[in-house]
Design brief:
Rossmann fold; seven-stranded parallel β-sheet; 7 strands; 50% helix; binds guanosine-5'-diphosphate; binds magnesium ion
């Protein structure tokens, strides 16, 4: 068993096996992971992190594949985290991703990791940002996170990475997919994928009319027509990503934004854990707390009030 310090050394030196082991520690909630992440955190690291979201089948993995090839061509070490919040057990989508990205599987400059989101209904696991941090420490730049866009995932992915790329495709219900609350606001770049297959004009019109509803102050994201199949639009896509990155996270703001994202992620996890342990202490666990609600003794909100009191909050 290696010490945390040895693990840190291994990761910094770019050893893929050590990185893989550390990712497993993070996913399993191994208490040494926090010590390791603390040791590895370098506030001056400048890796670009990109969250990729959008409906299943939109071509997220295919687009990521193109971006990997592009950045490999520029001599960059590229990290990819594929999170599948919808099917922690089936693994179907993850397998598909592996096949789509496998041309890069033997390239030492590419690190691809698939993870489920056990115990996290329909959302990203709390360890996702920690996994990103491990990849940053190992020298990957950029690092991309692909999530299946279901429910809250699009909004959650925005609090994970420097930039959020939303991938949409032409098809029935263009309006519905673009109008979904919150999506437009969290996207920094909108990709209209499958440009080779037609239907782009209608999709673009739908997207642009939804964007008109986004408050002006936020700034409207660029919309890029793209085909992961032919590679059409790739250069423009990269240009827009880099432009948004330098306007949103340029200079020292990048370091600040990263520290903020990581702190938010740590606080979310700590808050959840502290609240859960209070519920354990007061009720003997979630199930018993629910029993108490069903017996009419309290409500979920009443439990929230109890938590406020027990954490000494007064208002
Ligand atoms: N015609 C066409 N098909 C595409 C394009 N991008 C992806 N696909 C196909 O769409 C399907 C879903 O792609 P995938 O990358 O797995 O989507 P994801 O679920 O969003 O990751 C696959 O069969 C891809 O080959 C594209 O630009 N044009
Ligand atoms: Mg995929």
């Amino acid at each position: 068993m290696n010490t945390v310090h040895e693990l840190a050394e291994g990761i910094r030196s770019g050893d893929g096996r050590t990185l893989a082991r550390a990712l497993t520690m993070v996913e399993n909630g191994d208490p040494r992971a926090a010590v390791l992440l603390h040791e590895l955190y370098d506030p001056s690291a400048t890796a670009l992190t990109l969250g990729v979201t959008g409906p299943p089948g939109a071509g997220k993995s295919s687009m990521v594949n193109r971006l990997i090839a592009y950045w490999r061509g520029k001599g960059k070490k590229v990290g990819v985290l594929a999170v599948d919040p919808s099917s922690p057990f089936s693994g179907g989508a993850l397998l598909g991703d592996r096949i789509r990205m496998q041309e890069h599987a033997t390239d030492a400059g590419v690190f691809i990791r698939s993870m489920g989101s056990r115990g996290h209904l329909g959302g990203l696991s709390g360890s996702t940002r920690d996994s990103l941090e491990l990849m940053i420490a190992a020298g990957y730049d950029p690092v991309m996170v692909e999530t299946v866009g279901v429910g809250q995932a699009e909004v959650e992915v925005a609090s994970l990475a420097d930039l959020t790329i939303l991938v949409l495709v032409p098809g029935a219900g263009d309006e519905v997919q673009t109008m979904k609350a919150g999506i437009m606001e969290v996207a920094d770049v909108i990709v209209l994928n499958k440009a080779d297959a037609g239907g782009m004009d209608r999709l673009q019109t739908a997207v642009e009319s939804s964007l008109e509803l986004v408050p002006d102050g936020i700034g409207r994201p660029p919309v890029v027509r793209f085909s992961a199949k032919t590679g059409q639009g790739l250069e423009l896509l990269v240009e827009k990503i880099l432009e948004e990155a330098s306007s949103k996270t340029g200079d020292s703001r990048g370091a600040r934004k990263r520290a903020m994202l990581v702190l938010e992620s740590v606080l979310r996890e700590k808050g959840r854990k502290m609240a859960a342990s209070k519920v354990e202490e007061m009720f003997g666990g979630m199930e018993k707390a629910i029993d108490s609600v069903l017996r009419g003794e309290t409500t979920p909100y009443g439990i929230g009030e109890l938590l406020d009191k027990s954490f000494g909050e007064e208002d």
